[in-house]
Structure formats: structure tokens, C-alpha cells
Predict the 3D structure of the following.
Amino acid sequence: MSGAPFTLDTTAPVAELAAALINAPSPSGHEAELADAIEARLRETTHLEVLRHGNTVAARTSQGLPSRVVWAGHIDTVPANGNDSATIADGVLSGRGSVDMKSGVAIGLKLAIELVDPAVDVTWIFYDNEEVESSKNGLGLFGAAHPEWVKGDFAIVGEPSNGIVEGGCNGTLRVEVSATGTRAHSARSWKGDNAIHRAQEILDRLVSYKPATVDVDGLAYREGMNAVAISGEWPATLFLICAPSP
Ligand SMILES: [Zn+2]
């Protein structure tokens, strides 16, 4: 993109808007121009309060409705790989970001502008740096700076889900567990205490743990706790990923 400021036609059909978003390359760390274009369109409305934080743009209705839905979508993509232009073939839109997640951004942006009289108050968040390390994540930084803007009763994220509604999303907790022992020559093992063998106690706990299934409005929300790596030198170390239930 160069020359005149990039603009978006949000009155176009949503697939065309998605194509226009794809044609505005925004790999992580290079979202400013796209954020500018999104902000400019949102600021033209009269029903939305708009807030910019870095390259994250948020907008919200404040009609005093009893509940609020927070919608969030990231505007960055992983780097293009010869696919930085949108194409439509056999009714399928392709191009970097078409799935993850500029089609979702197109829907969110169009709804943000057109839903002037929503049934619930809505907060729309278009954020940067989702595809890179979490310390740069625009949604996290925005929420830390403006916590009142991310509060809601329900949240929708337009991530790829193959066209279905996927309820909930596991958070993660990464744990590193080490078993320690006492070194000994393998020919005199009675003099030592084998740290690798002690890892069995950790695995036993994992195997016997019964992950909870929590019912959220009819959705079976499954907890998970898994060992994902083990290193058996000194000390024996397990890496666990826990996906706690809500
Ligand atoms: Zn994504």
C-alpha cells in the first residue's frame, strides 16, 4: 500500500470487503495502515464510541441495554507466501488471511457499522499482533490498558472454526515439574535414588486425574491435563499443559 491513505468500502458485500482486507497486507507488526482504515470507518458512525490503543481499534455501543456482547478479531496475519492477493474461484475466497481471520474481521466490521440498533450493547475490538508472542498481543495490551472495555456477558471471536460455532475455548496453564533424586553409578544403583523413576509418581497423578466436564448452557466444556514432553536427564522434567475448565 502506498500513496493515498488506504480506505475500506464497508457498504460492499461482505465477501468483497473481506477481499479488500486481504488485499491490504497486515502481517504482525505492520497493521498500522489497516488499523487506520478501520478506525476511519468506525469514527464515521454516530452510534459507536471509538478508542484506539496502539494498532488496536475498539468501538462500542452504550445504549444502556442489560447485557453486552464483546466481539474480537485480529487484523494481523502470518507473512504472505505468494498469496497476498485475494482471489475468488468456484465461490471460494482465498488469499493470506482469508481464513485467519480477515473474513471474520469483514463480518465484524460490517456489523459494527450497520448494527445501529442492536438488541444488546456490543463492543467491537479489532486488534493487532495475535500471530506472534503473547506479550505483543493487542487484545491483551488493550484489556490491560482499558479493562472496562473488555467486560461483557458473552464474547465472540471470529477465528477459523470451519463454519461452525465452537463453544468456549480452553485457557492454558503450562507447568514444568521436576523429579529429583540422588546420582549414582548404574552398577551401584542402590546408592542412588533414580529421578527418572520418580517421574512415575507425576505420571500416575496425571493418569488417575479425572478431568472435569462442566455444563455451560448445554455445552459440555471439557477440561484437559496432559504431559506434552518429558526429558529424562538430570533432573527428570515433565512439561504439562493444563486446560482448566471455566
Ligand atoms: Zn487467528
